[in-house]
Structures are given as structure tokens and as C-alpha cells.
Batch of 2 targets.
Target 1
Amino acid sequence: MRCSRCSKTAVIYQPYSGLHLCEEHHMEYIERKVKKELRRQTVLESGDRLVVALSGGKDSSALLYMLNKFFSVRSDLELVALAVDEGIRGFRRETLRNARAIARELGIELHIYSFYTEFGFTMDDIASRGYEQAPCTFCGVLRRRVIERKAHELGATKVITAHNLDDVVQTIMINYIRGDIERLRRLRASNIAEFIPRLKPLRSIPEKEVAVYAYLVGIPLITVHCPYAHLSFRFTVKRLLNEFEMRHPGTKYSVLRGYERLMKFLPGREEHPRLPVCERCGEPSASRICKVCEILELMKGGSK
Ligand code: SF4
């Protein structure tokens, strides 16, 4: 098949738009969209220290590659990478090897922090307790805390994560299904006063398109998967959304657009006071005791 923009061979087809793109036009398309998202989400200022959450997977590696491509000419901006080792045997070591390799190749400073050092236990320890909630529930809460705290220590002015369209739409659907309007509202408020502003430049790019970009720029494909992923509710939602997308191309974009339209009718941050703080650790929290402290308490006890 030929590229819809030139006569070269296409490397990707976008079923939702009908476009076929060659290597050059696909890369150009992705980079243009990422720049547009960045402009939409923030104004980069001189002196900004951008901390990128790097897992070593295709999304965060491709994002770091792009950000370095865009900003290496700007001596007034600094890019730093931060990785979290949750302690998942047979999985994280592989992706961290990739993270180190890409950071070294791009000449970007990388800081790695582990759950074990920060909390005294690993994700494998949590999973071995056999709690009713899926391991991902704990993992997400703890990872967010490590990223926020360490980005702060690193002097970040903005935190950049590699959530792609699939991730964002899965989160929206999970909250719709649970009827969790407060979380849906908070999703939109990436610039809550208590936290360092968060940017998601890949939020409007489908996972498959990021994967093709990563492949084209030579980022090694990780073939190992987290052994706990299939236990999560997100996994089920992801499977269903992929099925919808296959039968009805454009579903994921339509969920995202619908969410953005709906959010205009919900109160924004300005109508809500600052978040209260957790009584135990003093970190911002929507409840009296934050989720991290609840997990720490739970892990102090024996098995379930
Ligand atoms: Fe953590 Fe779940 Fe991701 Fe595994 S799949 S790294 S447990 S959030």
C-alpha cells in the first residue's frame, strides 16, 4: 500500500481516518501531534526542569526520544528522567535495562528509585499476600507517590508521563463504569495546586501508533509483560475497548472527545478549595488518611 501523502510504501494504516502513512510521514505526524499537545497543555518557560517518568517501555522511551529531539537545542530547558523499580521479578529488571540504555544514549540524567527503599517492601511482597484488590491498585498508588515526591526532590517544574490515548481512555471508562465522577473530574485537573504540573503529550496518540514510532527510531521492543497486569480491571476494559475499536474504528477518540465535552459541565478546581492533607504523612489527600498510608498500615499486618 502507498502512503496517502507521497508515493512511498506505507508502514501504518489508521482505520479511523483512512490514512496510510510511510515511515517519514508517520514520524512527522506523531511529532506534530506531540508538539500540539504540549502547547495545549502548558507553556514551557525558560529554566523549566522537565522530569520524565521513564519505565523503559516503548511509550516512555519514544517520548523521551522525542522530547530530546525537540528540546536539545534549548539550553534554557533541562530534561531529567526518573524511573521506579516496583520490585517485580522477571519484568522490571528488563525494562530498567532499556531505560538505562536510552538515557545513556541520549545523554539524559536518569534517577532510579525503588518501592523497597521507599516503603520497605516490593510489589512481589504485596502480591504474595493475596489481597482481594488486584496488585495494580496498590502499584499505581505507590508509584504516583514515588514520582511526585522524587520529582519534587529533583527540582522538577513539570512532570511528564507517557500515557497514550489507550491509557487515558481506559481510565475514563473505568471511572464511568464505577460511577466515580470525582475521579473523572480530577483526571482533567492536571494542574492541581498541591502537585507539580503534569503533562501527558501522548494522550491523543493510539498505543499502536506510538509502538510503530518507537520501532522506527530503533527503540528495542520489550517482550516481557508484568505478571500482574492480567489481574486488573484495567486489563478487561483494555480488551473490550480494543474489540470496540476493531469493530468501530474511532471509538477511543470518540470516548476522549465525549469526556472532554462532558467535563465542561462539571465544576473545575476553582470551585473547590485546596485538597486537605493526610493526617499521618501530611501529603495532599482527598480522604482523612491517604491511600499510601492505608497500604503501609496493611503491609505492617500479617497476610490477609
Ligand atoms: Fe504495576 Fe500493574 Fe503496571 Fe504491573 S501492570 S507494573 S502491577 S500497575
Target 2
Amino acid sequence: MSGLEVRREGAAAWLTLNRPEALNALDAATKDALVAALREAADDADVRAVALTGGGRAFCVGQDLRELEGAYREGRTPDFADELERHYAPICRLLAEMPKPTVAVLNGVAAGAGVSLALACDLRLASTAARFRLAFAGIALVPDAGSTWNLPRVVGLSRALEIALLGDWVEADQALQFGLVNRVWPAEELERHAAETVAALAAGPTLAFARTKALLRDHLGTDLADALAGEAKAQAAAGQSSDHLEGVTAFLEKRPPRFRGA
Ligand code: T3D
């Protein structure tokens, strides 16, 4: 049985990692389910935003180390490259590249690949109970699941090295200061604020959001000329959308726009 629950809230898909007895550690069944649920959400045009959160007191503590230890005890040495290719790479790519906003709703502790999952999302909304530790060094591994790419882009190289090498806990308030998370609310208010934020994203101009996230991510690695060309191409397409016309009409009629994501 997988430790993932999937539900729809209007046009948003909510994915909840739910193995609270293991702080939502990622076993094979849960990773399989997460890849499948993210693929489905990415392909479903009726889903216009995706939220990833955890049940219980944790967001996610990364790889299930009990499962790993079980394999070692049976004399099997896991092929980490194969495992990363099979689960963590598609999860990371889907969260970053699907054509709709993805949001990590950080209800509690995040460690190891749990931090990597949060970093792969477009936005991170946290409760004061959230805390972060990269944790890979504790088991003599390198950070993976996209975190060596995402972390320095999110917090800068100096902070990334500090978080990876010193291994201190980053508490919610410090995470906000580092830019590791976008918002922090008191624990009891996270659910309400996160639901409002995700619903607002799901009601937004989905095609423009898809192009916006792709442009911002792609243009970190391009020069200005390529960025300007990329913007022109994307804007030409966005300008053809019915949401664009609705946005202009709503502005002139002095009312909020009703975007359909088309
Ligand atoms: O496959 C690959 O390609 C390799 C990839 C690896 C990616 C990674 O994610 S490596 C990093 C893995 N994660 C960690 O190293 C974090 C391990 N956990 C902890 O350090 C601590 O649990 C926490 C500091 C996060 C929380 O501590 P605390 O005291 O609040 O809770 P606890 O008592 O340690 O944990 C509660 C239960 O969750 C406990 O189970 P028990 O003893 O009550 O039956 C504990 O064993 C379990 N748990 C916590 N983390 C994991 C876990 N079970 C399996 N895997 C875990 N990662």
C-alpha cells in the first residue's frame, strides 16, 4: 500500500504524503504513487495547480532508511543511480516542469529528499513548525533529487554550502530569511492560508503561469538576448489566449477577471 493520498479541491490537486509513523519517509510504493499522481496531475487540463504536503507532524524525511537497511540485510546493494532515475528524477522534473504552479505546503519537518521535493516545487509555504535539514551527509551521501541544482538557485551558493556541509537545522523563521520558503504562518493557520493561496493559483491564468515558470527557470541559464527572444515567443502565444482577452476586458469593466486557464 502506498503512503500517498490524492484529492481534488476545485481545480487544485492535493497530494498528501501519509506515512506519519515514519514521518512520511519515501518507500518504493509511495514513490511509485507520487510519480503516477504527478504525471496524472500534469496531464489533466482540469487540474490548474498542485499542492504537495505531509500528514501528521512531518512534511517528509526523505528516503525510507528502514527499507534501505532491509535491502542491505538481505545482501542487496541498491543501485542509487538506477533508483534516482526511476523515482526521484521524474518526481523532481514533474514538479518543476509541469505546466501549472506547484506548491510545497510544509507542515513540519523536512529532511533529505524531503527538502529536495520542496525545492523542486515553484513555491514553498511553511508553518512555524517546519524545519529543514539536508541530512544526506549524516548517512555519507551527496544531496540528490535535484537539490544540488535547486538549492543554490533558491538560496545562493554560500547558504547552500552552509546548509549542505554544516548540517544545522534551518528553522522556519531562518528559512524565510534565507528565501528557502516564501511564506510562514503560525502552525494552526497554515491549512487555511495554504488552501487560499493554492486556490488562487488554480483560478489564475494557467497558460501564462506555465510559460512564466518555464521562462524564469530556463532563463537562469541563458543570456539576455536569448531571454528577450524567449519572452517574445511566449508573449506572442499568451497574447492569443482567451484569458488574456478576459483580463483586459475585466480591467476595463472594473471587475475581477474570471480566468479559465485557456
Ligand atoms: O535511494 C536513494 O537514491 C538514496 C537517496 C537518499 C535520499 C535521502 O533522503 S537521504 C536522507 C534520509 N533522511 C534522513 O537521514 C532523516 C532521518 N530522520 C531523522 O534524522 C529524524 O527522524 C528526524 C530528525 C527527521 C526527526 O527526529 P524525531 O526525534 O522527531 O523523530 P524520530 O523518533 O527520529 O522518528 C520517528 C519515526 O520515524 C521513527 O520510527 P520508530 O522508531 O518510532 O519506529 C523513525 O525511525 C522514523 N523515521 C524517521 N526518518 C526516517 C524514518 N523511517 C525511515 N526512514 C527515514 N528517513
